[in-house]
Amino acid sequence: MPEMMRAVVLDGPGAPDALKMRDVPRPVPKPGWVLVKVHAFGLNRSELHFRQGLGSFGSFPRIPGIEATGVVVDAPGGEFPAGTQVAALMGGMGREFDGGYAEYVTVPALNVIPFMSTLGWATLGAVPEMLQTAHGSLTVGVNPAPGSSLLIRGGTSSIGLALIVLAKRRGLTVLATTRNPNKAQALLDTGADHAIIDNGNVAEDVRMIFPEGVGGAVELVGTPTLQDTLRATAVHGTVCFTGMLSDEWTVPDFYPIDYIPNGVRLTAYSGGAEDLPQAVFQEFLDAVEAGDVRAPIGKVYPLEDIVQAHQDMEDGSVTGKLVVTVNGHPGVA
Q1: Which residues of 206-231 are buried (b: 16+ CB within 10 A; e: fewer)?
Q2: Any idea which fold 129-268 has?
Q3: Helix, strand or coil for residue 322?
Q4: Chain mean pLDDT for the chain
Q5: Exposure pattern of 312-324 as b/e (b: 16+ CB <10 Å)?
Q6: What is the distance between the alpha carbons of residues 254 and 183, in angstroms, rounded to a whole number?
């Protein structure tokens, strides 16, 4: 009989209660893959989309989860010694093959980033995908000049909060938006220089602070606000389209000359484990451990509360990264 483990299984699209806790066979790694004992994982908007049946990716039944953090149990190809602390992310996790909502997960070795840290598992579980997306959006998508300004549209999302931290470490002036005035202080507490209440049209407010427009912007809300974000950006500035918090994915009747202001650049970013250098990941964890930066964690749940965690993500009731802990390791956020 195979060894068994607890896992969250999704048989098909549905509401949060479509996520079912079950005992399933523990996966066995093949050469080139790594078996990881999961201690924590972060929740991601794409997992909500997958649960809702949006997009064309993935198949059912499936254990969701595009990231996980834990320790190596076995790597038949010898890529990592047993006991190595690792993060696993992307590359088909939770879509093409079973993902991190489980006590164990097996993933291609290319999806695995090793690290060393004494941080609690809740903190470690919050970082990988959040940091990958924020780092890539900033360095690849925008690539701001030193001393420039950055607008983060959707600042109270976990990626938005991580972007604030990374941008301030680069010496940028940060403007971050929120639709909820009660969350404005959270943006300032994280390090934003300006918190802007988003009524759908922030370009005017931005240009009151920077009359020529910001040097760069990261769009996390999605297509409903993208044109306004472009209008808030200076000539030769760059807007990186990264997120779809609005769940609206396309621009109807897109006419570039009318849509994009003269001289403003529009890019996009989506990445995987290979786009987060191990040194960048380790440096961020070290900075958190030293107290130099804070991982923007909103709430931590045990695996048994996955339905509530997804409901909170869908409602947008929590500011910051939602984290689930596994294997009896609550960690310290």
Answers
A1: bbebbeebbbbbbbbbbbebbbbbbb
A2: Rossmann fold (3.40.50)
A3: strand
A4: 94
A5: bbeeeebbbbbbb
A6: 33
Using CA atoms, how far apart are residues 161 and 164, in angstroms rounded to an integer?
5
Q: pLDDT-based confidence at 59, cuts 50/70/90?
A: confident
Question: Are residues 92 and 110 in contact, defined by beta-carbon separation less than 8 angstroms?
Answer: no
- Token pair, residue 233, equals 């950006």
Largest CA distance in the chain: 68
Which fold is adopted by the domain 4-127+295-325?
A: Quinone Oxidoreductase; Chain A, domain 1 (3.90.180)
- Report phi then psi at 241, rounded to 5: -90, 115
Element (H, E) at 299: strand 297-302
The residues spanned by each domain of the chain are: 4-127+295-325, 129-268
The DSSP secondary structure of 53-100, one letter per residue, reads T-SS---SSB---SEEEEEEEE-TTSSS-TT-EEEEE-TTBTTTB--S
- What is the residue type of 91? G
Choose the weakest-confidence range: 46-55, 95-104, 136-145, 186-195: 46-55
* CA separation for the pair 298, 218 (Å, rounded): 21
Average of per-residue pLDDT across 181-205: 96
Contact 169, 209 (CB under 8 A): no
CA distances from 185 to 55, 148, 333 (A): 34, 23, 20
